[in-house]
Design a protein that fits this description.
The complex is a heterotrimer.
Chain A lengths: L14 H23 L8 H18 L7 H22 L12 H28 L11
Chain B lengths: L1 H18 L3 H21 L3 H25 L3 E7 L8 H8 L2 H12 L4 E5 L4 H6 L5 E5 L4 E6 L3 H13 L5 E6 L7 H7 L2
Parallel strand pairs in B: 1-2, 1-3, 4-5
Antiparallel strand pairs in B: 3-4
Helix pairs in contact in B: 1-2, 2-3
Chain C lengths: L1 H22 L7 H14 L4 H9 L1 H21 L3 H13 L1
Helix pairs in contact in C: 2-3
Classes of the chains: A mainly alpha, B alpha/beta, C mainly alpha.
Chain lengths: 143, 193, 96
């Protein structure tokens, strides 16, 4: 009987999940950016859209569990974006410059939404990748 | 009214999450619970929270738990019937599934909080012993169940002790094969701890 | 028996909380939120009140929320090291 060999790979990846995630991947990306960019107009915003972007990292891990994403780069980008999140309101909002320029208000909201979205997405992505590729079971890590 | 209905369903799923034996089912119930919570937030006119709960609760957390469960190696128990006249059919599987021995083995793994899957094999015993995918192979010759394990696998030693203490020593006979015949990936991970 | 008891206890507490929540009709003094929902469009030019509150009225909240996320991830990187980090740490310890 030919189905002997199919019993050997009980722990392998499932083709159904691979195909479905590959099909949904661009739509998830599009949905995430839609939620982020329309944050000041429809329900949603930086945090929600960023969570959708972080789901992409997990989906990629489920399909293709290889640690080839450098989480240090993601973490550095997250730190830079956090610096912008702190600096831009200090320059624009707390000095009340933005209330003198009503035309720029929605541009400010969109910019802040994009910054928060990328920050949250990369942050949760780093967390998820760290958790997924954690190898040291029961060992002590010496500093 | 529909809110109370959703809340009661959520309560039902919470009880199911705690009291299920299989971790995979618990994860799926948790995802359903999060989705119901998102629906509840939508009914309470909080769409932003509904989006966040739906994505984080049933997206990221579910996939993350599944990824964590993938690391938690599964013990695979293969069941072989020695006379080929005992075909692996539905009623045979039901009889063996309901037998005390298999129930005890499942109970043992559930107590140790290890995932276990039982596979019924339609192949001869030698071929199953050559296969590296099974941690424990039960062979049933109609009267007696023989368990073939690796002699390095100390989890199986504990299993044998438990079965002897419970008084099933007559019905299950243990047979150790030499080390390396059945490389057990599940036990190797625990041995490094 | 213990399972049934704990299940009953959980379900009883759940029903109690649900009943208390449904019986509570207290209304708070709505001054601040009335100001916000009447003026957020003129103040911030945003059509979504929550975005207006998060990014304008309560910007400090958002800033420190982002900071909390960064802190949590720094802690996670510390306690969940990768294989290469662990090897580097061991070599450093053996040399130093």
């Amino acid at each position: 009987m030919d189905n002997y060999d199919s019993l050997d790979d009980l722990g392998e990846e499932s083709l159904v999940i691979q195909l479905m995630i590959g099909l949904l991947y661009p739509f998830m990306l599009l949905f995430g950016f839609y939620i982020i960019v329309n944050g000041h107009y429809t329900p949603g915003g930086g945090f929600q859209g960023g969570s959708v972007l972080a789901t992409l990292f997990v989906a990629r891990y489920v399909v293709f569990p290889v640690d080839d994403t450098d989480s240090e780069v993601l973490h550095t980008i997250q730190k830079i974006f956090l610096a912008f999140i702190v600096l831009i309101p200090m320059a624009v909002l707390f000095t009340e410059v933005i209330h003198q320029l009503p035309r720029w208000q929605s541009a400010y909201l969109t910019l802040m939404d994009i910054l928060i979205g990328v920050q949250v997405g990369f942050g949760l992505g780093v967390a998820v990748l760290r958790f997924a590729f954690f190898q040291g079971v029961g060992k002590t890590w010496h500093l | 009214m529909i809110e109370i209905l959703v809340l009661l369903t959520m309560g039902f799923f919470v009880v199911m999450i705690i009291h299920t034996n299989q971790m995979r089912l618990a994860i799926v119930y948790l995802a359903v619970f999060s989705l119901l919570a998102a629906l509840l937030y939508l009914l309470y006119a909080a769409p932003e929270l509904a989006i966040a709960e739906g994505i984080i609760g049933s997206g990221i957390v579910t996939l993350l738990y599944l990824a964590a469960l993938k690391k938690n190696r599964v013990y695979t128990v293969g069941v072989v019937s020695i006379p080929s006249r005992l075909k692996v059919e539905d009623h045979y599987m039901y009889t063996l599934e309901g037998s005390e021995a298999l129930k005890d083995i499942r109970d043992f793994f559930v107590r140790r909080e290890v995932e276990v899957q039982v596979v019924f094999l339609d192949i001869p015993l030698e071929r199953a012993l050559d296969n590296t995918a099974y941690d424990l192979i039960l062979s049933d010759d109609g009267k007696q169940i023989t368990a073939h394990t690796d002699e390095d696998n100390y989890v199986m030693v504990e299993l044998e002790l438990m079965i002897q203490m419970r008084g099933f020593g007559g019905s299950i006979q243990f047979q150790r094969t030499s080390a390396g015949t059945i490389p057990t990936h599940g036990a190797k991970k625990e041995a490094t701890e | 028996m213990r399972y049934i008891l704990s299940a009953l206890l959980t379900f009883g507490a759940f029903i109690l909380v649900t009943l208390i929540t449904n019986g509570n009709h207290e209304v708070l003094d709505p001054q601040l939120y009335l100001y916000m929902i009447h003026n957020f469009f003129e103040d911030t030019d945003s059509k979504n009140a929550i975005a207006a509150i998060l990014l304008n009225y309560r910007m400090y909240d958002t800033m420190f929320e982002a900071l909390i996320l960064l802190t949590a991830i720094i802690g996670m990187k510390q306690f969940l090291p990768r294989e290469s980090d662990m090897k580097a740490g061991l070599e450093k310890k053996n040399h130093g």
